Amino acid sequence: MKAIDIIKVNKNYPGCPVPAVDNLSLAVQEGEIITLLGPSGCGKTTALRLIAGFEHPDTGSISLADRLVTGPGSWIPPEKRNVGMVFQDYALFPHLTVQENIGIGLKKENKMQKVGDMIGLVGLPGLEKRYPHELSGGQQQRVALARALVRNPVVVLLDEPFSNLDTDLRTHMRREVTKIIKKAGTTAIFVTHDLKDALAVSDRVAVLREGRLEQVGTPSDIYRFPETEFVATFVGKSTILKGVIAPDHSSVITAIGTIPCAHTHNLPSGQQVKVSIRPDSFELDPQGNVRGIIRETIYGGNEIEAILEVHTKEGPVDLQVHIHPEKNIKVGAELRFHVLPEFVAVISG
Amino acid sequence: MAEKQSTTLENQTAPYLPETLRGLSRFRLFIWRGNPPGFVLELITLLTSLVMFIPILYVMVRGIQGGQEKWLALLDARIPQLLWNTLSLTVVVSISTLLIGVSAAWLVNRSDLPGRKIWEWLLALPLVIPPYVGALSYIIVFGPRGLLQNLLGQTPIDIYSFAGAALVLTLFTYPYVYLITGSALKRFNLHYEEAGRMAGLSYPRIFWKIILPLLRPAMGAGFILVSLYSLADFGLVAMLRYTTFTTAIYYQMGSFDRSSAAILSVVLIFITLIILWFEYRTRRKQRFFQSSGTYRKPSPLPLGRGLVPSLLGIGTVVSLSLVLPLSVLFYWSYIGISRGALDSRFWEYTFQSLLTAGLAALACAILALPLVYLKSRHPAPLSSFYERLAQAGYALPGVIIALGMVFIFNRYIPALYGTAVVLVLAYIIRFLPQAMQAESSSLNQVSPHLDEAGRSLGYPPWQVIGRIILPLIRPGVLAGMALVFVSAVKELPATLLLRPPGMDTLAVRVWIEASEGFYEMAAPASLLIILVSALPLKWLISRF
Fold it and tell me: Where are the domains of chain B?
């Protein structure tokens, strides 16, 4: 069953020239965790608020668990949609205790038991009587999650849930939140601009740009095989080169040589294309066919990010490469690399 | 799949809404910028704002329809003199309050004046003395049959004059400027002054070149508040027998020349609008001037040779605006009470004051809520428009509101005319904006995400307001009620004009006894009004 079915939704804000959401269609399966990923202002939060019912779309329809909630002439208000929401600032009611916050939307019967179960699930036993200001950031987030999950919602929506946490807690909470949602068996939509959040928590990632869906896929598909230049450069780093599909259909002829490519979309040989090469595809190799001079290095601890300048017939080309941190690389050194096909993809646009 | 979906979609929605209703809901979406409020909520708001606005509109219509002849006659004979009287008083009072308010604020906040903390409080206290009560105490001391006349056979000033009115009005309105500039000085980012020092400026130059220009928005706000007050004041100028627009309108109504009263009202509304327009402009500018404060205390500046004059100045202001009126009132209250002023009739006035003011406060707190909620949670031109309409009574003199009520109730609802209902409604129209301000500043501190969290947890909007918003903004609601209550207890002109025959309030008694020279009877009622006004002092001061 589809938990969420968004069909051709458009949303414009008056006085704003660019649509906030532009012809968005997206289906989410029950129990799936999907992330809307994009730079700020790309419309991902608007999309979330359209699902929750805090915004009206101009056109298009949204169904939750096969029930039409937004469509031409029909409208179900947020309180009747049974959608859970975790806000960026958590929006815990400051005048209510943890217990009361979680139980506020429940009917009398079994209320205490449901609240108790939820407090157990999110790991907050003992804090039932505390007020939100007496909790740490991570605890507040658990309460917000419990409150969103306790009514067995069709879907739980999480708006930038990790952005208020420091780095250590963030990594921990990514794992915890995913675990709790999976245990509850709920469908979830995250919204984030943080690549690591998206790749870590999602079954699938939907990349948005200026209100349009650029690509949907598993985290590894999105990373390994970006379909557009925007996805290639927004989801991680990438070098974009022009080229032509080679006769063997599994490599691309570019200015820096013939690059093996695992994702050519079965395009015919001779077709003009662009190709995205992740820095991880370059491997130091004294016999490699890509030769250039190191122009810049940034030492990142687990890797060295470097820019390699390669001279070609069409002038110098800068490549982004990753080098193993044990190597002692100096700017100006001449190095050779070979290219692994796994992180090379033909892109459109 | 998509096709199948769209057919089920049509099946579902076709019987839902007829085409006209669908068009209407699309139109509402458009004017509310995609975020329409509930229909009932909007209806309540619309009705409230209309009721708030109609009396004023009616006065203007009647004034404009007053007839060419009357207009020309008034323009020829009365209006120039009234304009001169009113505007000169307004300008002189505004400028003198600015001088007193800013220097006092600077002295208690930035200098090494001995006893700064105590002075700081004493200087704010005249705020709780209604200017007409202040005027009463000055009549008692400086009047032709007053204390000084009896003791010395002469008085230093003629209290029934321009100078008298300007002096007394200044003494009881400077706290507005003082509190606004004082709070701006407290929030002042000290880095500006330190940067001035680094640039090699001496303190006087820092004061003139940095502090004063940055205080300009606060000073402007205080100046405008005092000007509006001077324009609208009735009790003080009437007691000191100085004729301005408000007293002229009042006496025209007394002689049943209501169309002349309406014409004069139109002119006064016009002047008020001009000042409000200035206020709107300074408030817009203030946003750019807003500076985040540092949390260090500034080191007090030694006054040196300025110490004695400063102390004398502050002492004079406090004596004239606080010590003198309070001691006079206490003295005459003592005499009055010993002669039996606190009889059963006195408690009847008190009860009637508290009852009408209490009803008005309760009604304002309730009526303000939908207006404020709509403005904060559904921002759109339409919600701002409702808010403006509802605030039409803000800053307008009580006599004009009363005139509008007389017109409307006389003509359309005569059954209620001359009942306390009309009086309470007049209080609501005048003071609803105070409740709105208090509630909206509370509501703006509550994140809209809390509303949305409530909605997503299954509460319809009215339950969100009742169970989440109301408990969170309770302090603001109470503060708003207290402010309205106090203003209604002090209210004089509309009460005089609209009270049912035989129903007196404290303020009315002060007025009547004072005009007949029974000071010992007026003093206890005055003291009680001051006492009631002092109740929400904490909130009054924190508004600035």
Answer: 37-543
pLDDT in tens, A3-47: 999 999 999 887 778 889 999 999 999 999 999 999 988 889 999
| CATH T-level fold of B37-543 | MetI-like fold (1.10.3720)
Coil, strand, or helix at residue A38? coil
Does B455 contact chain A (CB < 8 Å)?
Answer: yes
Using the beta-carbon criterion (under 8 Å), do A85 and B13 form an inter-chain contact? no
Q: Which residue among A14, A52, A93 sits closest to B456, beta carbon to beta carbon?
A: A52
B449 touches chain A (CB under 8 A): yes
Chain center to CA of B444: 21
Query: What's chain A's length in residues?
Result: 349
Cα A139 to Cα A177: distance, rounded to the nearest angstrom? 12
Which ipTM score applies to this complex?
0.78
The contacts of residue B344 (CB under 8 Å, 6+ apart) are: none
pLDDT in tens, A38-66: 998 888 999 999 999 988 898 999 999 99
Number of A to B CB contacts under 8 A, please give it: 97
Of A8, A82, A95, the CB nearest to B472: A95
Inter-chain CB proximity A83 and B456 less than 8 Å: yes
Taking the C-alpha atoms of residue B132 and residue B153, their distance in angstroms, rounded to an integer, is 25
pLDDT of B390-420, one tens digit each? Answer: 888 877 899 999 999 999 998 899 888 889 9
Could you read off the pLDDT of B201-238 as tens digits, one per residue?
888 888 888 888 888 888 888 898 899 999 999 999 99
Inter-helix orientation angle B162-187/B116-124, to 10°: 130
From chain A, the residues in CB contact with B452 under 8 A are: 52, 54, 78, 85, 87, 91
Closest by Cβ to A73, choosing from B8, B13, B472: B13
Q: Three-state DSSP class for A106?
A: coil
For B460, nearest residue in chain A (alpha carbons): A79
Long-range contacts of B501-510 (CB under 8 A, 24+ apart): B501/B418, B503/B352, B503/B420, B503/B423, B504/B348, B504/B349, B504/B352, B505/B349, B505/B352, B505/B353, B505/B356, B506/B349, B506/B350, B506/B353, B507/B130, B507/B132, B507/B235, B507/B353, B508/B349, B509/B346, B509/B349, B510/B132, B510/B133, B510/B136
Q: Which pLDDT tens digit goes with each residue over A208-222?
A: 999 999 999 999 999
Residues facing residue A34 across a β-bridge: A189, A204
B9 contacts in A (CB within 8 Å)?
61, 68, 71-72
